């Protein structure tokens, strides 16, 4: 069974469903691990380039899985899968994939964006997916894993919980509502470091100035001062 790194171990721990699809599977290690551990019954790997397609095909050859060559959800049928993962892509690429065939998306999504994470949370907020959990690796580089379930309206209650402790939705979208509610120490340390760095710079852009102000309000809130 392939050994998963810390990032993919977090993803694997969250997956529930008989048939699971992994988009951008690369070497197919996540699906191989899930199948070998009987966490899923069948896997579908989706690759849009020939070499990753060959890599995943070799890994999954003797397992109950198939590899499809194509773009994102283009090669997934409606109601075909129970859960979906997309890992190691930018947030905007993930949002594009999710937006192209919304009728083909399963109830559970496990996503690991490398950047523009707020755009993924915003997409889910706008499309009836509730953020049921979010976790991060403890390694030097922080990888965030977001777990969503489709509930539809009303809006995701985790953002109401933020309001109840004096934080606002924009903070949750930017930094993660569950991380903020749990007073995640690694996140707070990283934000304090970012605040010092940005404050030391001259001629900040409007976006950077707004981010510094958001971080200042967050770190000085009663929610975090009381920890």
Please outline what is shown here.
The chain is 44% helix and 19% strand. By secondary structure, it is of the alpha/beta class.
What does this protein look like?
- The chain has a seven-stranded mixed beta sheet, sandwiched between helices.
- The chain folds into two domains: 6-151, Vaccinia Virus protein VP39 (Rossmann fold); 156-227.
- Helix 4 (91-100) packs parallel to helix 5, helix 5 (117-126) crosses helix 7 (169-175) and helix 9 crosses helix 10.
- The model has no long low-confidence stretch (mean pLDDT 94).
- It is of the alpha/beta class.
- It has eleven helices and seven strands.
Listing every helix as H and every strand as E from the N terminus to the C terminus, the arrangement reads: HEHEHEEHEHEEHHHHHH
Radius of gyration: 19 Å
Trace the largest sheet across and list its strands: 3-2-1-4-5-7-6
Main sheet properties: 7 strands, mixed
- CATH topology term of the largest domain: Rossmann fold
CATH architecture of the largest domain: 3-Layer(aba) Sandwich
Structural class: alpha/beta
Overall geometry:
elongated
CATH domain class of the largest domain: Alpha Beta
Mean pLDDT: 94
| Helical residue percent band | 40-55%
The tally of strands reads 7
Low-confidence stretches: none
Q: How much strand content do the residues show?
A: 15-25%
Query: What is the count of DSSP helices, taking H or I runs of 4+ residues?
Result: 11
At the fourth level of CATH, the homologous superfamily of the largest domain is Vaccinia Virus protein VP39
Domain count, please report it: 2
Distance between the termini: 42 Å
Protein name: SAM-dependent methyltransferase
GO molecular function, one term: tRNA (adenine(22)-N1)-methyltransferase activity
InterPro entries: SAM-dependent_MTases_sf (IPR029063), TrmK (IPR006901)
Organism: Rhodopirellula baltica (strain DSM 10527 / NCIMB 13988 / SH1)
């Amino acid at each position: 069974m392939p050994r998963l790194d810390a990032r993919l171990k977090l993803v694997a721990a969250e997956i529930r469903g008989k048939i699971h699809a992994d988009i951008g599977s690369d070497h197919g290690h996540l699906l191989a691990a899930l199948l070998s551990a009987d966490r899923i019954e069948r896997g579908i790997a989706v690759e849009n380039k020939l070499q990753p397609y060959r890599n995943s095909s070799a890994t999954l050859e003797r397992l109950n899985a198939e590899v499809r060559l194509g773009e994102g959800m283009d090669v997934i049928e409606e109601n075909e899968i129970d859960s979906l993962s997309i890992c190691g892509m930018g947030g905007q690429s993930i949002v594009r994939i999710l937006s192209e065939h919304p009728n083909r998306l399963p109830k559970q999504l496990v996503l690991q964006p490398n950047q523009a994470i707020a755009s993924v949370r915003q997409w889910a907020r706008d499309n009836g997916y509730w953020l049921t959990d979010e976790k991060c690796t403890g390694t030097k580089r922080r990888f965030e894993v977001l777990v969503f379930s489709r509930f539809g309206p009303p809006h995701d209650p985790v953002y109401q919980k933020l309001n109840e402790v004096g934080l606002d939705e924009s903070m949750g979208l930017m930094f993660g509502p569950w991380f903020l509610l749990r007073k995640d120490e690694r996140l707070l340390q990283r934000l304090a470091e970012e605040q010092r760095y940005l404050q030391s710079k001259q001629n900040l852009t409007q976006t950077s100035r707004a981010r510094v102000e958001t971080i200042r309000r967050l770190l000085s809130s009663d929610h975090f001062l009381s920890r």
